[in-house]
Design brief:
alpha/beta, 7-stranded mixed β-sheet, 6-stranded parallel β-sheet, 10 helices, 15 strands
Length: 356
């Protein structure tokens, strides 16, 4: 087979503000030879789906900037993210040609995965007769988003049960929709903020949340007074900013805050970021705040096996429902990233690499 044109998402330039498609992120054609041997200890793959996740904004940084846990993307090089792929060639005993895998790989139509990234690659189990899981669900609920929700809920939400109130921001997003359902499974009263009326309807009518609001038309303070006058036992923060500031004032004594992300602040220069002014409540209310990264070794060791088993069962049994926005065409990646960071999407953002 002759070398192929390989459309690839490329990190073009740094910015402290909103990335501009074509200037900071762009899709370019590279040459890929599917017959070439994979890197030593690595694999070559054909990518079918790409997972776009908010944390990737932190990878758009200078190589000497230690500001986040994730590997920085190299300027002029491909974005590296989670893929759903087929193995073409393998130099690794754990993978064979034809395996379906979830990989950490270059965001192209094809990718060569070096040994250090193969360590983060998972072979997907063979299909179960009579059970069909959509690829977008496999890369979402059974991928990083699901793992983030699972690890953080079971590690940090103390004694989840009936009689406790759980508030999650960005509640219709990739992580929010799942962690809210975990709280409901444990009997908690669950309320959530979203950015549109159809998202409010989705999480209350389809996912069973007890209450929700559109933060664009109702303030967090007004909504929490209406939906949780008793106070909040656990706040799951995906957005930071004003919602975190207000939640701090509404927490019950000895409450818990799980910090999963602060997407409202990702594309704002440091000097313009929202300054949370209610921090005194941390000691006045004796709160516990937990930040986490789901891929930390201690979490993977403790939860990865049970996550894979439990989430697969819950999804196939209909106990966990998810919504994904699937955008077709790798050419749409730059715009899809910006839409995701702005909340201009519904559910987990996924790119279908081509129309096959």
């Amino acid at each position: 087979m002759a070398p192929l044109s390989n459309k690839t998402l490329v990190f073009k330039a740094l910015t402290s503000g909103w990335p501009i498609p074509g200037e900071h992120l762009a899709v370019e054609s590279k040459i890929f030879d599917p017959e070439e041997s994979p890197p030593p200890g690595g694999i070559t793959i054909k990518n079918h789906y790409l997972s776009l996740d908010p944390y990737m904004r932190g990878q758009m940084r200078a190589p000497d900037d230690p500001g986040t846990y994730s590997l920085p993307w190299k300027i002029g090089g491909p974005a590296v993210l989670t893929t759903l792929s087929t193995v073409l060639r393998s130099d690794n005993p754990n993978f064979a040609q034809g395996d379906m895998v979830s990989a950490m790989a270059a965001a192209g139509e094809y990718a060569a995965v070096p040994a250090e990234l193969v360590a983060m690659t998972r072979r997907l189990p063979a299909p179960v007769p009579g059970v069909e899981i959509a690829p977008a669900t496999a890369i979402g609920a059974l991928g990083i988003a699901g793992l983030s929700a699972y690890v953080s809920f079971f590690e940090f939400v103390r004694e989840p049960r009936a009689g406790k109130t759980f508030f999650v921001s960005a509640a219709s997003g990739a992580v929010g929709q799942i962690v809210g359902q975990l709280a409901k499974m444990h009997g908690m009263k669950v309320i959530g903020s979203t950015g549109a009326p159809d998202k409010v309807n989705y999480i209350t009518r389809e996912l069973g949340f007890d209450g929700a609001w559109d933060y664009k038309t109702e303030s967090t303070r007004e909504a929490l007074a209406r939906l949780a006058p008793e106070g909040i036992d656990a706040y799951y923060d995906n957005v930071g900013g004003e919602q975190l500031e207000t939640a701090l004032t509404c927490m019950k004594d000895f409450g818990t805050i799980v910090s999963s992300g602060m997407v409202s602040q990702y594309n704002i220069p440091d000097e313009e970021k929202y300054g949370v002014r209610t921090g005194m409540n941390i000691f006045l209310k004796r709160l516990t705040i937990n930040g986490f990264i789901c891929s930390d070794p201690q979490h993977l060791k403790k939860y990865l096996a049970s996550f894979s088993r439990d989430m697969f069962a819950w999804v196939t049994e209909g106990k966990i429902k998810t919504k994904e926005e699937v955008v077709t065409g790798i050419e749409q990646c730059p715009e899809a990233f910006v839409r995701m960071w702005k909340g201009d999407k519904f559910g987990k953002m996924v790119i279908k690499v081509d129309g096959e």
